[in-house]
Here is the input.
Amino acid sequence: MEWTLLILFIAAGISLMIPSRLKNLKGWILSLFPFGVFVYLLTFIPVIDEQWLIERSRPWMADLGLNLHFMLDGLSLTFALLITGIGTFILIYAHEYMRYYSHTKRFYVYLLVFMGSMLGLVLSANLILLFIFWELTGISSFLLIGFKHHQENVRTSAIQALLVTTFGGLMMLAGFVLLGLASGTYSLPELIIGDIKITQHGWYLPILILILGGAFSKSAQFPFHFWLPGAMQAPSPVSAFLHSATMVKAGIYLLARLNPVLAGTAEWQTIIPLVGGSTMLIGAYLALTQKDLKAILAYTTISALGMLMLLIGIDTELAIKGALIYLIVHALYKGTLFMIAGSVEKQTGTRDIDLLGNLAYKMPITTAVALLALLSMAGLPPMLGYVGKEIIYEAKIQAPHIAGFVTFFGVVSNIFMVWVSIFIAYRVFFRRQYHGFKTPKETSHHFWIGPGILALVGLILGLFPHQLGEYLIQPAMNVIRAESLKVDLKLWHGFNQVFMLSLLTVIGGVVLFMLRKQIIPFFRKVNKKFFDVRFSDLFTRFLDGIMLFARHNTRIMQHGYQRIYLMVLFLSVAFLGWYQLIDTRFWTIGLSVGHLPPYVTLIGAIIVIATLFTLFSRSRMAAIISMGVVGYGIAIIYLIYSAIDLAITQLLVETLTVAIFVLVIFKLPRFAKLSSRASKIRDGIIALLVGGFMTGMALKARNLELQHPISDYFLNHGLSEGFGSNIVNVILVDFRALDTLGEVTVLLIATLGVVALLKIDKS
Amino acid sequence: MLSIITGVLYTAGVYLLLRRSLVKLILGIIFLSNATNLLIFISAGMTEGKPAFVAKEGAEQTGQMADPLPQALVLTAIVIGFGIVAFTLALNYKYHKQTGTYDLDQVKETDKV
Amino acid sequence: MNSTILKMAVGVLKPLFLLVSLWLLLRGHNEPGGGFIGGLIAGSALILRPLAYDLERLSEKNKRQSRIVLRAGMILIFSSALLGLVSHNTLLKGLWLKVNLMGTQTLKVGTPLLFDMGIYLTVIGFIYFVFISMMEEWQWK
Here is the structure.
């Protein structure tokens, strides 16, 4: 089962290699991969029914406790089937849709990688692995949303989506880490099956909030919802995929997956329904006032996601059942509708519902498919949407504590949904006006085959909901609720309270639709007045603010005067150093240096004099030569104190340095008097501070024996293991050869640097 | 005494680095690198006349020898220091040639060109 | 620089320097010397000729040579590092081969020596290359 992931990622690679001869079949060929996975996953249905959970693990970073650990249970399977099933049709659709785009090769790679990451996300059995796939979906969706990156608004939307979801992802990672620390495991099956009481843990609230941050941002919950309408800038197949089976459902999946671990508390049952409920209402309301067909659909997606969140938050058996069915319902109709919207745009050249109309006669097949999907969206029989909506109403009525509130919200949102469905059907397909840019005609079969099948599946499952319940919903329920349940779905429940609510919903929707001429302008006015602030703009402004702040700071910090950088650096070093020295009273240990032999004193004096000469010399040549004297003096000190190799090296290097300076010196500018007296004194003081501190430190270091030096090891093992008597050399080429390797590399880079610099104006 | 030399070298290096002249910058770097080498060297303690050579097999180890590790560190540091000097020289030369300036305070202005 | 003395001396000094550097390199493991020192001396030897003579005749050939030397050095270093990796799974692990010479003396040849030779060549290449490039830039004569 873990191979299925690999297959999709391999498919991404293969998509690059399909020869141009087969270009006309590309989407079809590629769709075989997810379709194969889909069929393969279908065979797991009976297996899952029996044993609930299949785990596979292979070592990856075993030392970190991180393995490629995958699991398949009812919940994963439901999602995996949606991803691969809808993915298949998306590819077929994309085949035709993307035909006249450039860079389609890239497109297929992104899409397949996205599909693979999404599948990985739902199959991961390890929190960290899940996070990795989570971010992979974020990155690949960024690439997909930004596919038409030559347009500025597309880039903005893509960056927004990336930032929002990544920000949430990082919150979620923090939550995962806390969860892992609190429970001692990152393994999902252990968390779910094991009896670790996280809900009692002191960190429960932070864990919950962090993980919810991830789920809410990914699933476009208020106030993170704004990235989703922006994401419709993506090509239509991507929108269809993003909105239906993937990406936005990841948050739902996460919460459903962690339900046994985190749910059942007052916090869970308050925060999630509150956020979900308001998202549901806001999404539905905003959908009404949009003019762009895809924007309308995007806001209904937000509303639907809010509904799913709400149900997961209610956390009763019925609510979870409703959520699972609605998940499938929504995936089927939203995928269909987005693809239809893409077809409509292709055929008419616009997505503006004020311009569209009268397509029912020009594009009959497309219209039929769209109507099926819209029926499902409105929650009317005989579609699966109806089954879902009935259960959801039931769940809401029976919700603990908050039944009244959620039922009211639910009915209002559903009335809006019905209205939107009728509205779309009327405006796009049946209105007797048409102002589009092209003369519409029926699309080729590529365009309606995918959505058609999805819509038909919605119809078939609506007619035979029992099988769906038994084979898919029930195993998923079992793992979410962690108990064995019987799920029996029916299309027809009889006349009861729920049915009355449904009736009310439909009537409300129709009435509102009738009154649209009055209501929509009113809503638009309200919108203008109260909802004029667009979250996406706020977000953009926030980002701009950060950039401005950074630029401002940079201007202060990076003034371009090297001396001042250095001054700050040296002063802080000297300050900290002196503080430390005085704090430890270095003078108590420092000054007990024994007498030095006179020749050392003499050399010392020579060095000091030569240094001073270098400092104050006006002539470049003299400065360089006295600097050479300093170097030779140091070499002699090395020699006196038993470092023969060092002495030789120092001598040679000093010679070469002087030589190279002599080579260059006449090409370099003369010493100029650039500094005033005051600045010289200031620099002198800084320099003295640093120098004095260094003296103190050197004194201190000499009198400090912290630990048994490691050199003893080298001394004792130099001959036996390094086979050399010159320990310095043995260290260089044997014991610490890796360091030497690095140092030699530095030399090489310096060479390259010199050559590159000198060649600059030759080319 | 040697500590004081180290201090003097550091002082000279820092002072030169804070000048505005291009050439003094290089000299400053050389001083700093020498000073640091010396600091590492003397901080390990100094042993006169006992280089870190182990006797051949069979012979007896005698007395305390100089610490070989800082020597090894400093040895490579010296060579690398030379590499850096060569690089800085080339950089400075090129900079001077391209911009005609020798004042480090002008770097900001020439960046804009 | 057009010094006749230097020109005459180059012929003698260069091979002498090179020999000394080689000697220092080979004995470096037991006595003062080693790759860095040997390399520095050999590098100085190689730049003597360009310093003494007209550069233009030499420059291209010299550059090519120095590039080869640099490359050879790096190859030696990495190969000695990789030998250890291949045989003992540890990068830069010292490997020693004991060769018996005449029954009494044992000559030990190991990857550290290879490594040292790599350093030697790299340092030579570095000095040679940098000097030549600079001299070429400034039309040193």
